[in-house]
């Protein structure tokens, strides 16, 4: 049989592509950090080959692991390396997506006790305590809707036990629709889009060279050509620290008039860092650009967790059209049963507009100072941030310029665990509901997210640890990295870990 030259070239190209794929998939197996990740329950690729039960995991018929969010996985790995939530003074946790909860300069006093009246021992309504719903509506009207004919009432507010609970309630009432999401974005969207399978996920990759800005013209075309019914995103955006505001945010809100629902996670709406003194105390919300609160299909999720710096309270809310709120009451009745009753009552005075303004100004000054401090220290370490954050309390740090294997987020994370510091590898923000993508092909693979939420002394402790890793690389070379990661706290090996040793060379892979 004879081949014409074009056919030979085509065949050669195909073979080359296959070899490239094999080579790429071999990379994961050659990296100890990546193999540990894949062996964690729920992190195997789905959809490429039939799933098999891992005999070393205790299984329950019919149960599948959804995969853990980034913070949970990283916390579990830290615990295997000696981290403890109760005795963590020697550790720097720059991974947890939580702000410092103690006093900060010029802020109102922290809540120190919670009154528990007898009535609050009863269940609260699944939509929340009416007085708190009224307080939320009043705050939004005061902050974003002065002079507008359409105003929020308590019927536009549903109180939920945490932001993820709010998102889950919303997902439970959405029909079989195409749902747009962006990469990178909040890690829990991955599990939500995987668990609620009526939502068909449609990804959009945000470009670093465009400062991770959402291309609204492209979104509008996708609405028309792909039939997008729901757009889900965080604003300000976790993990990149960028924010959509002004005309861009107005245009996104106006997409709802083309038959699309916009769900906006606005948990970082106060974490805005102005350059001008007069702008301190201003915050961001899509509520400012809504015409009719019951007609415009804009759904806002926010709460006490970030802005009020009370993550342990688990008191949050969803704001939207009345008919959505009634649907959320129904989904909440079987999903979570409602938020904590006494803490809902305790939250009411915290939403007083005068107190909120005082909180905002203090928070913005304090966190801007911490942001600038971390950026300066990273610069001194030779780790300049490509796109510095203008909002949130996160830094999206690109590691590509570091030598392999420190130039990928999972390995960098594992090396910092040895130095008692936690960061979040970027792959967790690659919303990839079926986990199909080879990790080395992820656009987030070379990133880590650093949080400057913790107190400044913890930030310095973590930055010192990064400095030690970089110094060690310079002094000892790269053979010191990429291996010898603790799989469990007691040091014993399970059958899974024995297999890991079989997959991963004892010496670092130069190809990683």
UniProtKB/TrEMBL annotation:
InterPro entries: Aminotransferase_I/II_large, AspAT/PAT-like, PyrdxlP-dep_Trfase, PyrdxlP-dep_Trfase_major, PyrdxlP-dep_Trfase_small. It comes from the Eukaryota. The keyword Manganese does not apply. Its cofactor is pyridoxal 5'-phosphate. Residues 92-466 form the Aminotransferase class I/classII large domain. Keywords: Aminotransferase, Pyridoxal phosphate, Transferase. One of its GO terms (molecular function) is pyridoxal phosphate binding. The keyword Transferase applies. Gene3D superfamilies: Aspartate Aminotransferase, domain 1, Type I PLP-dependent aspartate aminotransferase-like (Major domain). Residues 490-512 are annotated as: Disordered. One of its GO terms (biological process) is amino acid metabolic process. It holds the Pfam family Aminotran_1_2. Belongs to the class-I pyridoxal-phosphate-dependent aminotransferase family. This is Aminotransferase class I/classII large domain-containing protein. It comes from Marasmius oreades (fairy-ring Marasmius).
